[in-house]
Amino acid sequence: RRVREAVVSTQSTGMKALMVSGYDPENTEHRRIVLRLAMKCSDLCNTARPWSTCVQWGKLVLEEFWRQGDEEKKMMFDVTNMFDRDQCVPSKALTGFIDYIAEPLFTLWADFCDTSFTRDICRLVDNNRSHWEEVITLPV
Question: Is 9 helix (H, G, I), strand (E, B) or coil?
Answer without folding.
Answer: coil
